[in-house]
Amino acid sequence: MNHFIISTLLLFELGAVAAAGGTQERHIALSDALRMALENNPAVEAMHSQRRAAEARTREAMSGFLPQLSLNASYTRYQEPNIILPIHQVGVFPPLDDQIYDARVQLYLPIFDGGRTFASRRAARAGMNESRVKEEETRIALTERITQIFIQAQEITDKENLITARVRSLQRRHEELSLLLGEGRVSPADLANVSAFLHGARADSIEIAMKKTELALRLGQLTGAGGELYPRLEDARALQKMGVLSDTLLLHRPGPQVRKAQAKVEQARAMKALAVRSFLPDISGFATYIYRSGADLDLIGEWAAGVSVKLPLFTGGRRIAKVRQAGASLSAAESNLRAAETAQKTDLELALQQLHSARQRRQRIGAAVTSKATSVAAWQEMHQAGRIPLSELLVRETELLQLQIQERSLAWQEVLSALRYQAIAGTLPEVIEKITVR
Prior knowledge:
It is a single chain. 68% of the residues lie in helices and 14% in strands. The protein contains 11 helices and 6 strands. The strands form 2 sheets. It has a 4-stranded antiparallel β-sheet, with no helix packed on it. It has a two-stranded parallel sheet with strand order 1-4. A hairpin with a 6-residue loop joins β5 and β6. It is elongated and about 140 Å long. The two termini are 24 Å apart. The N terminus is likely disordered.
């Protein structure tokens, strides 16, 4: 209930800001976005309901250890009069009637069932563990999607800042050339060349604005807020710590996929044990108190107690078939577990390699940016001295811009690789909480 109130108040606050500011952008912190998404997402709610159903099945299986109490009542009309009670004394017959009322309270007490209840409980618990892992897996996937939007928003903003600076530089140059053209000091070709680069940079700005809107719409949809909801970029920049945290090796920690496969194996083992135990006898005790009467409703009561033993001798091969089926299911579950372990190890190694590759490439590109910036400064001096044409300088400046954009993109690619690494290992929520804590 508290989570619902917080989510509702946050949605109201966002709506109030939008109403007060007209087209003012709505921004949200990463922690708030994650909380809203986890509370409002239908997939998370579906997994939560499945987990509750699995927990109920576990309680149902455990009820096999407890005694059972039942109340039965019946009315029977016979063609000919019948005895109301059994004969208890030789030569003394109980009353007869063609209408008999019967009511009984019966207590059933399990004594020995060959371990079938234990096996059923194990299977139910394994199913509950699997449901819990599925719910966790859904939460991790949603957390990863939300966090990706924050990272991508910061990457786009970095690119936007670089292109905006480039547009302003080209605008100033375009204004200067327009004045010089009127004085006949530059050729129309130089002005046209600058105009071409300026239009290209502005086209890139339009594309960036569209990508920002797309991310805002996706974030609004995932959080349930609706409309455009923009990430708070301070949180996105804090996520850069994730790359350093991911240097810790997590290759041998079982992630959600592996733990889900482990639960399947445990469930298959329990089902095989249940099938094997079907060959053992079932021993139970019972106690009954019976009230019987004829049409006059003069109730007569007596009790009975005893022990029963049930041992199936022949079932047409059904029990043997179930044992074989359970054995094959166990073999398949164990194979799936080995496959999940191999897949997780491979995915973790790949994500870690991508992280290190992005880091190394960013460092190299960073060195290239420094060198290129020095080179462009020299080209600018040569252009001012009239030693190189403007078109050559514009090409060099564009090359520097592309290197700068590539460097920032690799920086955030490193963070995205770390995000994938933590998601595969199942440690993403705790890492996000550690980074975003205030």
